[in-house]
Description:
Strand order of the largest sheet: 2-1-3-5-6-4
Radius of gyration: 18 Å
Strand content: 15-25%
Helix content: 25-40%
Number of helices: 10
Structural class: alpha/beta
Largest sheet: 6 strands, mixed
Distance between the termini: 33 Å
Bound molecules: NADPH dihydro-nicotinamide-adenine-dinucleotide phosphate
Oligomer: single chain
Amino acid sequence: MxxxxxxxxxxxxxxxxxxxxxxxxxxxGIDLVYDKIDVELHQLGATVxxxxxxxxxxxxxxxxxxxxxxxxxxxxxxxxLKAKAANVLWMKxxxxxADNTDGEGLVSDLQQHIxxxxxxxxxxxxxxxxxxxxxxxxxxxxxxLTLTNRNxxxxxxxxxxxxxxxxxxxxxxxxxxxVVIHATSAGVNQEQMIWPEPILSAASLAYDLSYDRSKxxxxxxxxxxxxxxxxxxxxxxxxxxxxxxxxxHGVLPETKGLVQQLRQ
Length: 264
Ligand code: NDP
C-alpha cells in the first residue's frame, strides 16, 4: 500500500511541503502521497488521531499547532522536549512519536550565509517556530541570543525555559544585533507589523522564516529599504523537510539545487 504523509496547519494552502517531499521521494525511489490538511482551531488532536487511524505514516505540523502537537506526543525526542513544540509526528507500535527539525533546518541554512560564531542574534516572535530554533542557535557559539515578542509574557516564558536567552520588550530593543531573525506569522496572515528601525543598524544579515517563492516577503522588503540584505526561509523549509524525511525513511535526501528549483 502506498505510504501516506501530510502537513497539518491553518492556514496551510501556502505550504510547499508536498512538492518538497515528492521531490525527495522521487530522488530516493520511494512511492508516497503527501497532502495538505487545513485543520480547524481546536481540532488538531481529533484530526491527528483520524489520520493515523486511517493508516497515515507521518505528519508535518505547521502554524499555529506546533505546541499543541508536542502536547499530543507520547514519545517526544530530547530536542522536541526541550522546545515543547513539534513539527514532525509519526506512529510506532501505537505510540505517537514527535521531533523538531526546525532548528537544525534553520542553522544549517543560516550557516550557508553567515558564520554564527560570536554573533549577537535577535529573534522577533515567540511562537512554535521560535521554540524549535532557540536551542540549536544557543549551541552555535553565539555571543548572545535576544528575543522579543508582541506579547512579552510569551517571550518571558521562554526566558524561564532557556537560561541563556535574553528577553527584551519591543520598546527596549537596541541597535547592536549582528543577525535579525523574523519569526512571526504576520506575513502569512497578511498583517501589518512595525519594528523599530534601529534594530538593523549593525546587522549584516536579516533572515525571514516566512517565504514567498516568487517575490521578497514584506519583512525582506522592509529590510532592503534600509539598505540591508535579507533572505527568506525557503532554504530552512527544504532543510527541515530533509531531516523529517530522514526520520521517516531512514535516508537523508540531497537538497542541493532544490531551493532554486522551487523558485522557478
Ligand atoms: P505561531 O502561530 O506559533 O506564532 C506566531 C508568532 O507571530 C507569535 O510570536 C505572535 O506574537 C507573532 N505575531 C503574529 N502576528 C503578529 C503581528 N501582526 N505583529 C507582531 N507579531 C505577530 O507561528 P509559528 O511560530 O509556528 O510560525 C511563525 C512563522 O514562521 C510563520 O510565518 C511560519 O510560516 C514560519 N515558519 C517557517 C519555517 C520554515 O521552514 N521556513 C518553519 C517554521 C515556521 P504573539 O505571541 O504576540 O501573538
